[in-house]
Design brief:
Catalytic activity: ATP + (deoxyribonucleotide)n-3'-hydroxyl + 5'-phospho-(deoxyribonucleotide)m = (deoxyribonucleotide)n+m + AMP + diphosphate
Enzyme class: ligase
Structural class: alpha+beta
Largest sheet: 8 strands, mixed
Bound molecules: adenosine-5'-triphosphate
Radius of gyration: 29 Å
Protein name: DNA ligase
InterPro entries: ATP-dep_DNA_ligase (IPR050191), DNA_ligase_ATP-dep (IPR000977), DNA_ligase_ATP-dep_C (IPR012309), DNA_ligase_ATP-dep_cent (IPR012310), DNA_ligase_ATP-dep_CS (IPR016059), DNA_ligase_ATP-dep_N (IPR012308), DNA_ligase_N_sf (IPR036599), NA-bd_OB-fold (IPR012340)
Number of strands: 23
Strand content: 5-15%
Number of helices: 30
Distance between the termini: 79 Å
Helix content: 25-40%
Pfam families: DNA_ligase_A_C (PF04679), DNA_ligase_A_M (PF01068), DNA_ligase_A_N (PF04675)
Amino acid sequence: MSSPAKKRKLNNDGKQNGVQSKGLEFFFAKQRQNDGQALPSASIGCSNVPSSELTDEELARKLQAEWDQEVANGRHNDNQPPEIPQSMQNSYIESESPDAQPQPEPPASTMQEKPSKALSSTLTLQSTGMAEDCFTSSIPMDRSPLMFEPSKYTDSLKQHWEAEGGNASYALLTRCFVLVSATTSRIKIVDTLVNCLRLLIEGDPSSLLPAVWLATNSISPAYVSLELGLGGSAISKALKHVCGLDNRSLKAIYDKCGDAGDVAFEAKKKQSFTLRKPKPLTIKGVYQSLVKIANTQGQGSAEVKQRIVDRLLQDARGGEESRFLVRTLCQHLRIGAVKTTMLIALSRAFLLSRPPGSTVVIKRNSELSKLRKDELAEIWGKSEEIVKACFARRPDYNDLIPVLLEIGITSELLVRCGLALHVPLRPMLGSITRDLSEMLSKLQGRDFACEYKYDGQRAQVHCDAQGKVSIFSRHLELMTDKYPDLVQLVPKIRGEGVSSFIMEGEVVAVDRGSGELKNFQTLTNRARKDVDIGSIKVDVCLFAFDLMYLNEQPLLDRPLRERRELLKSLFIEVSHHFTWVKGLDATSNDSEAVLDFFKAATENKCEGIMVKSLDNLVDVPYTGDADGQEVEVVEKLSTPKKSKAKTKSRNRGGEGNDKEMGSRRKPLLATYEPDKRLDSWLKVKKDYNSSFDTLDLIPIAGWHGQGRKAKWWSPVLLAVRNEETGLLEAVCKCISGFTDAFYKATKQFYDDGEDSGERKNTRVQKPSFVEYPGPLPDVWFEPQEVWEMAFADITLSPTYTAALGLVSDERGLSLRFPRFLKKRDDKSLEEASTNHFLAGLWRKQEAKVATAKGKDAKEDGVQDDAVDEDVD
Ligand code: ATP
């Protein structure tokens, strides 16, 4: 299953190759066209009668008949497993747990032979729609982990699970999701996850990995393309089958709830019978079912997927299991357990718990409870650093979790789970600077490399000793198929003595003859997948800028100067195919040369320059401001305390700079730091302007325009992301910067269906993941895009709640005079600006005002002195 980022990228590359998931709205729009039609399969029993008019018994029989019909269609004979077309059989992963297998109802022939038995096992009417697992619900998972002893519960849990086949129940994970969803406190979210993970580590370690995948709303790492490929209609059908609803009642619930998960919750409440006794879901079983759905391809796959979805929803106990199952199936879990939260939770869980029989050293609750807050934070921090560093080097839970279970949190984890060929590491990122002078002052006293900032696609090229090549994108997706020309190039650029390597560079469209750079748009015209080397129309050149691994040795800890030396000396230039980024080594005394270099870069179709620290000057204190600089955090993950003093202490800008007082600055190193955005890499872009910050916002709603704009959406409501809660927090309404053509396109893209009759990317009800306390818009948008917005300034708002609690207890932030600049098609929703980033910009703005006031006061003081002197 893809993350939103992954999904968007896959869908975004011009060709739209990925399976387009259709929402429930789409399904209902289709239903509207056929309005009046009841459930399908009209040939069986009483199916011409609308389902709503049937008794439970009749409905149960009708549904059973439909199921039987489906099964009969899908199977050849009694003794075979559910039909899986030949084309899918290899990819069909074997289930470990019995409940994971989609076990169809007995085939029609069996039913005929033994009707009484079949009927007695399937047509028991049970009122289990809302039956929940009460024991699991009673576990106080949201306590502080220092007050929570998993061993108190694991024996009973195991007994409980024994009756259900031995593996941890999905009810446990659901309970965790319910508690996490019920709070916006980051601490509570982490605590709950930690406790849930500990129960699994101690109670059923084999369910830990699937639980982590499910909680992070994915089933595979980004570089393994495993897509569920389920449309909204599969979920609607399943809800109708399982809960005995017809189109009309399902639509009524959908109109009321708006969110597919909430629809499932309500639908389950209405379920008054089951066709057979539900088999309690296990974490493993659910995960394996998702993997099966994703692996099921080819002819007949829709039916197989539908059967698995039906089975999952049928076995879900109670509304909450149904809600989170459906959210998982829609790939939108919204529990705020994004990567960072999960890594923090894992690092704490493994500090406190170990699997049965393990002798790994762990900390006792009693031991940690005695510590001072800062001492505890230091312990948490160290463990977190190790886990995060591992995941940045090898971002795959399939690798991380087994090693954690085996050795716990030790520095050996970095060795056992470090950089690996053909597994992409998370790229190092650059911090934004406003202009050259800010950059020069940040890097004062250091040697740095200025490099052209090419406008292409970042590529991480892996090559092993056997010559196998893998190429990964900035978002870790495998794109070897997209660049067969680069794959073919690798043997030519690999100098003598180079056996294996991981290199990074920018792939740029070029004119093959002259080598002239072409713009990014040209590169996007290249096909995305399975590019045939003979039919390439867009030629590219790889401009290499880093080397992270060479001949089985990671180079991450070497300073850039050394890495660059190796990159330049050991690889061979191939004109207009492979070369190094154009660069200039300088210091802050070379401002004119740097300015000339910057101008040359922009004249050569580059976006600006990247400026990188060359050496590890441990003794040179870093004098830049804290934006983007890594800080050693003493007090990690404290909840944003809503006190004024704290507010002042947070007077720093930059994304993710929510780190608290007590931070110690680290020296600015020139090492390669995966997944970190540090000041050792600075971006200076040509379109930056010192008085001009921008935000990447998500359009979430619109109002009908006035007068000339009546047929379009104007204003449009935009939001920032809250990474902790998963909510989108509205921050402004925008009416400026749009062209008529843009208005028109936007109306077509976010279509309320009034004219066209088919709703697209919009919904009637406010989605529960949107936070906007203002007057209701005319339509809500499905979050789809990122728009770059300019603005005059950021203000404290009595209406908007964006970044509430980060700069003020009572007020959120809003933008004054927001102006649309451009769509950021290159950005996924996950890359839209966060509430913390917004708060950071506000603090920066306030600091500037304070400095300006200080300056004015000083100037006033000088004048006063002068006057005094005169007087004297
Ligand atoms: P980021 O990648 O930092 O999150 P972003 O997606 O907005 O931000 P940019 O601000 O455009 O990207 O800048 C970073 C990108 O610039 C890199 O990911 C890389 O693709 C590209 N780039 C071009 N030239 C270089 C270079 N010489 N060194 C590093 N990156 C470069």
